[in-house]
Amino acid sequence: xxxxxxxxxxxxxxxxxxxxxxxxxxxxxxxxxxxxxxxxxxxxxxxxxxxxxxxxxxxxxxxxxxxxxxxxxxxxxxxxxxxxxxxxxxxxxxxxxxxxxxxxxxxxxxxxxxxxxxxxxxxxxxxxxxxxxxxxxxx
Length: 139
Description:
The protein has 139 residues and is of the alpha+beta class. It has helices at 2-17, 24-28; strands at 30-33, 39-46, 49-57, 80-87, 93-99, 104-114, 117-124, 129-138. The chain is globular and about 40 Å long.
């Protein structure tokens, strides 16, 4: 009985000494402002992945470049622009990003440059052509 109690105590001490596993998805959850200061995107958990929607706009904007003509009059406010982000190679998260500036969806990666800076990279042609934007964390 005494040996079992001692073994339980040792096991608990070892578990407490192990560093907590990093959560790359949890570190990105939050509110981010794009580099031109025109919008803020709230990134949150959506089931097993992360998604993001526009929660603030400097001025009203609409989805005028959407390929679906019936959606071109919808407001960008509340629009989900990031979806399906899960851990990928080199610590980045990979998913899809919708760009309202051209109405297209791109293979996109999210990678923290620092706790306050998020690099958003959209690519085409299997990653041969990419464009980056650096977002800043908002309170």
